[in-house]
Structures are given as structure tokens and as C-alpha cells.
């Protein structure tokens, strides 16, 4: 009887322990921390980080244009990847000075500002959407006097075919976007400096001084890249494209120009050139999907006005599939861009140190 009682108590204890372990495992399981699959009863969660989900839900409420929304999704996926990597670093005792954490916070603020979700009104977008006193010229599309003047000269120069003008226009638009990003970063640094003025602790002040110094260095590098970019646009606008132009996509051209400034050997440049060609194919494919997504959205809006439920459902499904594919390709393209940028930056540093 004693043996039987002991056995029953032991079984109860084992059962209790199993329940406890199951609860702990449930708390940290992949199912709990990762997004729920679509088709489940509960609402699908896009991201594993709460604040990123909040931004995504807000973007959907704002009804951003489809291509813009897909771009935001890709940017948030990149931010998620970087933040999850940082959390792993932190557990391993790395990033002691908080430099990586500060950079992630800055990147997040840039995303909010880039998509008009930081609570501020963007003067550039207001200007571009407002009625102008004078009749706008076809070339006044960049909301920047220097860019518009250069673009108008290029258009009437007779040095470009229609395809070349389209390629050049993409470069101008890319440069405009880079200026916008620079202004956002500069604003972020300015706000950080305001906070820095109110620091009381000398030790904390020293740490923040270092952080500000790094941000100013980043600003200088971005300004240098902007100057290089504008000089390239100025040269092409005056001289036209050369026959040995290596690439067509602005982001790829920017990487190639940066690589040539690193004094890499001919063999290293040839290897990188091949990798950039593959990347350019990826960029062009992503651009094609963006165009198809915009067309699909226009068709869906048109079908919705007709009121045929079955027709609407079919077009909605096509649109959803295309949007998902565009987001996925955008993420892969931006991740590849990030990897290439870091690779070129590291190689440049290594050669500069020699």
C-alpha cells in the first residue's frame, strides 16, 4: 500500500512538472513569437516586433499607395532582421556602448519620416501637390531648382534617346530621394543635439558626445555621396551617356561608382562587376513587379465601381498575390543592397588603411 501511494505521488509530481515545462516552452515557442499563418481564426501578425506591427497597421489605415506600402513593408522587414540580430548580440554581451542600438533607433525614425508617419508635415510633398502660380513645365518634376534646371537642359540637348532619357530620369529621381533621406537624417541629428544639451551626468554626456560625433561623420559621408551623385548627373547631362556605361539602375550605378573610389584591384572590380550585374537584374525585376502592382490596383478600383462581386473577388485575389510577391522581392533586393553596400564599405576601409 505504501509503495502504491508513493508511486501515485511520483506520477502526480511528474505530471505537474510536465505541465510547468509545457507552459514555459509555450511562452517562448516559435508559434507564440512568430506571426500566425494566414487563414487562422486570429488576425495575422506581419512582424515579430510589436512597434513594427503598429507602424504597418497605421500604414494600412492611412491607405498608402500600393507600391509605397510594399516599399514600407520591405523596409520594416529589413528593420526587423537588424533588430532581431541586435537582440542576439545583446544576449551575447556585445554592443556594450549601445552604438548598434542607437543606429537601429535612428533607422526606425528615418522610416517613420520617409513615409510621413512621424507626425510632421513634409514641405516637399506639400509643394509638389500644390497649384503653382505659373504654368508648370514638363521638366519641373523634382522640386529642386538645381535638379530641374539640369534635367531641362538634358531634355533639350538632343544627346539622349527616349530610352536614355528614361534612364537619366530614374537617376534624377534617385538623387532626389537621397536628398530627402539626408534631410531626414540631419533633422534626426538636430533633435538628438537638443536632447544632448539637457544632459546632466558628465559620463553620460561623454557617451552622447561620441554618438553625436558618429552621426556627424555619417552626415558628412552622405553629403560626400550626394556631391559625387550630383557631379555625375551634371557630367552626363552635358556629355551624354558614354558607350562603356556599365549599368542602368541608379542604385547599382551608385554602388559601382563607390567601388571604383576604393582603389580595388582590377580582378576585384571585375568580380564585383559581375555581382552587380546579377543585382541589377534583381532590381529591374522588382521594378517590373511594382509597375504590375500599380496596374493591378487601378484595375481593382475600376472593377469595384462595377459592383460584380465575383469579378471583384478574382481581381482582389490577383492583387493580393502580386502585392505579396512585390513585398518579398523588395525585401530580398534591399537585403542584397545592404550586403553589397557593407561589402564595398569594408573593402574601401581595408584599402585606405594600407
Short structural summary:
This protein has 354 residues and is mainly alpha-helical. It folds into three domains: 1-31; 121-127 and 140-245, Receptor-associated Protein (Up-down Bundle), CATH 1.20.81; 249-354, Receptor-associated Protein (Up-down Bundle).
Structure description:
It holds the Pfam family Alpha-2-MRAP_C. It comes from Nothobranchius furzeri. The chain has 354 residues and is mostly helical. It has three domains: 1-31; 121-127 and 140-245, Receptor-associated Protein (Up-down Bundle); 249-354, Receptor-associated Protein (Up-down Bundle). It is 78% helix and 0% strand. It has twelve helices and no strands. The chain has helices at residues 2-28, 30-33, 50-62, 66-91, 99-114, 123-129, 145-156, 162-197, 202-239, 250-260, 266-306, 309-353. Helix 7 (145-156) runs antiparallel to helix 8 (162-197). The chain is globular, with a radius of gyration of 26 Å. Residues 23-34, 36-42 and 123-136 have low confidence and may be disordered.
Q: Using only CA atoms, what is the Rg?
A: 26 Å
Poorly predicted tracts of residues: 23-34, 36-42, 123-136
Number of DSSP helical runs? 12
**Which percent range describes the beta-strand content?**
under 5%
- Percent of residues in helices comes to over 70%
Question: What's the architecture of the largest domain, going by CATH?
Answer: Up-down Bundle
Using the coordinates shown, work out and report the CATH topology of the largest domain: Receptor-associated Protein
Signal peptide: 1-26
Protein name: LDL receptor related protein associated protein 1
Keywords: Signal
Domain Alpha-2-macroglobulin RAP C-terminal: 141-354
Amino acid at each position: 500500500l505504501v509503495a502504491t501511494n508513493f508511486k501515485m505521488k511520483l506520477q502526480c509530481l511528474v505530471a505537474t512538472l510536465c505541465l510547468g515545462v509545457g507552459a514555459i516552452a509555450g511562452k517562448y515557442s516559435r508559434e507564440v513569437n512568430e506571426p500566425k499563418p494566414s487563414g487562422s481564426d486570429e488576425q495575422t501578425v506581419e512582424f515579430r516586433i510589436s512597434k513594427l506591427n503598429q507602424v504597418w497597421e497605421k500604414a494600412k489605415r492611412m491607405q498608402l499607395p500600393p507600391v509605397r506600402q510594399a516599399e514600407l513593408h520591405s523596409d520594416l522587414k529589413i528593420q526587423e532582421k537588424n533588430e532581431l540580430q541586435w537582440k542576439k548580440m545583446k544576449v551575447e554581451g556585445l554592443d556594450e556602448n549601445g552604438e548598434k542600438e542607437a543606429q537601429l533607433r535612428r533607422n526606425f525614425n528615418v522610416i517613420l519620416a520617409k513615409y510621413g508617419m512621424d507626425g510632421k508635415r513634409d514641405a516637399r510633398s506639400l509643394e509638389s501637390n500644390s497649384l503653382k502660380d505659373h504654368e508648370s513645365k514638363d521638366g519641373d518634376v523634382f522640386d529642386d531648382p538645381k535638379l530641374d534646371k539640369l534635367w531641362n537642359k538634358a531634355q533639350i540637348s538632343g544627346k539622349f534617346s527616349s530610352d536614355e532619357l528614361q534612364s537619366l530620369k530614374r537617376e534624377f529621381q534617385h538623387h532626389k530621394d537621397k536628398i530627402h533621406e539626408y534631410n531626414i537624417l540631419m533633422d534626426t541629428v538636430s533633435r538628438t543635439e537638443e536632447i544632448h544639451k539637457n544632459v546632466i551626468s558628465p559620463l553620460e554626456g561623454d557617451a552622447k558626445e561620441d554618438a553625436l560625433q558618429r552621426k556627424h561623420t555619417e552626415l558628412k559621408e552622405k553629403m560626400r555621396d550626394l556631391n559625387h551623385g550630383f557631379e555625375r548627373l551634371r557630367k552626363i547631362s552635358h556629355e551624354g551617356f558614354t558607350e562603356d556605361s556599365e549599368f542602368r539602375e541608379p542604385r547599382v550605378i551608385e554602388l559601382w561608382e563607390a567601388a571604383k573610389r576604393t582603389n580595388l584591384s582590377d580582378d576585384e572590380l571585375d568580380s564585383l562587376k559581375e555581382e552587380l550585374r546579377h543585382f541589377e537584374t534583381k532590381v529591374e525585376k522588382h521594378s517590373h513587379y511594382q509597375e504590375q502592382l500599380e496596374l493591378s490596383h487601378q484595375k481593382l478600383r475600376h472593377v469595384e465601381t462595377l459592383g460584380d462581386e465575383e469579378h471583384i473577388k478574382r481581381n482582389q485575389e490577383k492583387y493580393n498575390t502580386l502585392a505579396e510577391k512585390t513585398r518579398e522581392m523588395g525585401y530580398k533586393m534591399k537585403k542584397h543592397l545592404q550586403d553589397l553596400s557593407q561589402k564595398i564599405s569594408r573593402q574601401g576601409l581595408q584599402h585606405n588603411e594600407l
